[in-house]
Amino acid sequence: QVQLVESGGGLVQAGDSLRLSCAASGRTYSSNAMGWFRQAPGKDREFVVAIDWNDVMTLYSDSVKGRFTISRDNAKKTVFLQMNSLKPEDTAVYYCAMRSGWGTFSELRRPYEYDYWGKGTQVTVSS
């Protein structure tokens, strides 16, 4: 089994930055892709960004492109999400997820294409 644990969320003001972490443990895929999703109250889970095993390929949603940066440290089995210039509309619970290998852009955006999920970390951005 795989366990994913997110951390780093909090309450910030618009324009501030946060860095989220997602630590993986257990029998992780040898070449996995990791994604970040978010879910605001009353809304569907939304794709944010994905990264491949080699940290070469990334896919960002238009809503965060230029503000958020994903990275990973495979030796530590950790993925990071640097969030800059935060906006109130970024307020949500942020989840990291793991799937086996990269995929098409359509696949990477769909929550059900991921096999393992963390429990999430709350990010609240006040105006």
Explain this structure.
There is one protein chain. The longest helix has 5 residues, at 105-109. This protein has one helix at 105-109; strands at 2-7, 10-13, 18-26, 32-39, 46-51, 58-60, 68-73, 78-83, 92-100, 116-117, 121-126. With 127 residues, it is mostly beta strands. Strands 2, 4, 5, 6, 9, 10 and 11 form a 7-stranded mixed β-sheet that branches. Strands 1-3-8-7 form a 4-stranded antiparallel β-sheet, with no helix packed on it.
Q: What integer value in Å does the Rg equal?
A: 13 Å
Low-confidence stretches: none
* Main β-sheet description: 7 strands, mixed
Helix/sheet category: mainly beta
Order of helices and strands: EEEEEEEEEHEE
Count of helical regions = 1
User: Average pLDDT, to the nearest integer?
Assistant: 95
Secondary structure tally: strands: 11
User: What fraction strand?
Assistant: over 45%
Q: Categorize the overall geometry.
A: globular
Distance between the termini: 40 Å
Query: Can you give the helix content as a percent range?
Result: under 10%
Features:
127 residues, mainly beta, 4-stranded antiparallel beta sheet, 1 helix
Put the structure in a nutshell:
With 127 residues, the chain is mainly beta. The chain contains 1 helix and 11 strands, in the order E-E-E-E-E-E-E-E-E-H-E-E. The strands form 2 sheets. Strands 2, 4, 5, 6, 9, 10 and 11 form a 7-stranded mixed beta sheet that branches. Strands 1-3-8-7 form a 4-stranded antiparallel beta sheet, with no helix packed on it.
